[in-house]
Structure formats: structure tokens, C-alpha cells
Design brief:
The structure is a single chain. The protein is α+β, with helices and mostly antiparallel strands. The protein is 48% helix and 21% strand. Helix 1 crosses helix 5 and helix 3 packs antiparallel against helix 5.
Amino acid sequence: GLVGSEMCIRDRYIHTELPKGKSANSAGVVRAYSGPVLEAIEDVALANMVGAYLHPATFNINRSERGLGYVHGAALATVNRQSLMYFYGQVDHTDRIAEAEDGWETVIRELRSGEVDDATWEQYKQGFLAQLRSRPASLLQEADRTLNDFVSRGDIHWRAKLTEAVEAFEPGRVPSFVEQFVSDTPAFRQLEI
């Protein structure tokens, strides 16, 4: 068995002991895929659109359809322009980890094959544009947002440029973008608790 916070790394899977108080049969699982460095604003817009799709699609499959538990989702994040796509879930029995993984792979297949229809992408696009166009409640919040754009991207007009790039979003680019995350061998690292 594992002692303390010691981890056992085997291939691309990382296993660690359960926190105290959790059932020995339950499990938490996180899978992360490293993706491209995002330099062009069009790629940042594309990443944001894929990220907007990931969470509800994963939640619907693993929580709503399969009843695997409440904590299920996914996201596409960037840190210093490096993109990372990750999935997570909690199951009530370790025998159900494979079901959660299959749900993640279903979402990836949908994205890689272009199965997500244009109407769905349009809904996500309009939602993201509404978020980008929302006005802060105060001048302080506006200044904070502008400063954040400058500090994180070096451009006080970042939000306006990203809005334009999202308006020009092309769903046909999604499959090749997602392929950049999942084409390597091994394509992911997985933490099982």
C-alpha cells in the first residue's frame, strides 16, 4: 500500500491513496492532455470555444446519461500560452472508472470527427460573445479587467481582439485543433485517487 502522500507512477497513470474518510471503493480520476502553445488570437478563440463545449458535454454524458456521480466535467485551460485539456470525475466504485474514461473519449471522438453541429457551436459562440461583451458593474472592475488583459497578454485591447476572433470562429477547425492534444503517444497523464 501507499504511505502518506507517496505516489506510484506506472506508465502514464499516477495512483495515490484515498483521502481519509472516503470509501475504499470510490475513486476520483483526472486526465490531462497537453496541447499546442497558443500564439495566434484565432487559436485562443478556438481554444475557448472548445473549452466551452467540453464541460457540459462531459457532464451530460457521465453525470446525466450514465449516472456516474455529480462531480464530472472538463476544461481547456492555458498557462503562459501552453494549452491543457483535462477531464475529471468521481465515481462511487472503482469498477466504474472505465465508464468515466469512455465518456471522456466519446467527447473527444465527437470533437475529432466534427460531429458537433454548427447550431451547437453557434450557441456556444453567442454565449461566449455575451460574456466578452458584458460590461463591468463599476469603473474599478473595468480598470481591473483592462489591467489583467495587459498583464496576461501585454495588450489593453485584448478583449476586443478576442471578441473579433470569436466572431470569426470556424467550426471546421475544431477536429485538427483537438487532434493536436490527443495524437501523441502517450497522449495523456492520468491521476487516480
